[in-house]
Design brief:
By secondary structure, the chain is mostly helical. The chain has one domain. 70% of the residues lie in helices and 0% in strands. It is built from two helices and no strands. The radius of gyration is 21 Å and the shape is elongated. Keywords: Signal.
């Protein structure tokens, strides 16, 4: 098998794997989970005023 054929098979397998993971996630995870995650990450501060900021 030449390199173009191998790359084609790899790309098809990769697309199949991502498609299967997307279908599984959409079937198992509720739609509100992503919204809650985005809201909780937006509420979290990562600025200099956090308790974990490094002091010189």
């Amino acid at each position: 098998m030449n390199s173009a054929g191998r790359l084609g098979v790899f790309a098809a397998g990769l697309a199949l794997a991502f498609g299967a993971s997307y279908a599984t996630a959409s079937a198992l995870a509720p739609p509100e989970a992503a919204q809650r995650w985005q809201q909780s990450s937006a509420d979290t501060s990562h600025g200099e005023d956090s308790d974990h900021a490094m002091n010189p």
